[in-house]
Amino acid sequence: MFNFLSNSGVKKISAKEAKNRLESDNTIVVLDVREKTEYLGSHIPNSINLPLGNISAVEKVVPDKDTTAFVYCLSGGRSASASGQMSKMGYKNVYNLGGISGWHYETVSGK
After folding, report:
1. Coil, strand, or helix at residue 98?
2. Buried b vs exposed e over 4-40: b needs ≥16 C-beta within 10 Å?
3. How far apart are CA 16 and CA 26, in angstroms?
4. DSSP character string of 19-64
5. What residue ranges do the domains of the chain occupy?
6. 64-101 burial string, b = 16+ CB within 10 Å, else e?
7. Which of 29, 30, 68, 84 is 20 to 30 A off residue 45, Cα-Cα?
8. Sheet strands side by side (includes 93-99)
9. What topology is assigned to 4-72+81-102 in CATH?
10. To which H or E segment does residue 73 belong?
11. What is the pLDDT of residues 74-86, one digit of tens each?
12. 31: alpha, beta or left, given left = phi > 0 and alpha = psi -120 to 50?
């Protein structure tokens, strides 16, 4: 089993499992909760930049609370916080992907 609950009740997902799921399901939303300058430097393809400080605006970006969302940052701290906040807002399929530092697959830079 790749997914497990953290102490906060947020599901975690490994980079490998996330990559496999992203290849077979184009409805998954990938949220990068780092600051815009970090995002522009390098990010997972097709991810959406929504800095942690703006996570309350997630309902504008992901209006359907049943949408599967993978959340990441640099090392996992901000993504854990964002995932927890999203769960409290009623999102049912939020996964903490951790940090891009553990993502050993394709990344892109710029917008």
Report:
1. strand
2. eeeeeebbbbebebbbeebeeeeebbbbbbbbeebbe
3. 16
4. HHHHHH-TT-EEEE-S-HHHHHH-B-TT-EE--GGGGGGHHHH---
5. 4-72+81-102
6. ebeebbbbbbbebebbbbbbbbbbeeebebbbbbbbbe
7. 84
8. 4-5, 11-12, 93-99, 68-73, 29-32, 48-49
9. Oxidized Rhodanese; domain 1 (3.40.250)
10. strand 68-73
11. 999 999 999 999 9
12. beta
Is the pLDDT assigned to residue 19 strictly greater than 60? yes
Q: Note the pLDDT tens digit of each residue in 24-67.
A: 999 999 999 999 999 999 999 999 999 999 999 999 999 999 99
Q: What is the pTM of this model?
A: 0.92
Residue pair 67/90 in contact by the 8 Å Cβ criterion = no
Helix (H, G, I), strand (E, B) or coil at 85: helix
Q: How far, in Å, CA of 48 to CA of 26, rounded?
A: 14
Structure token digits, residue 29: 């939303």
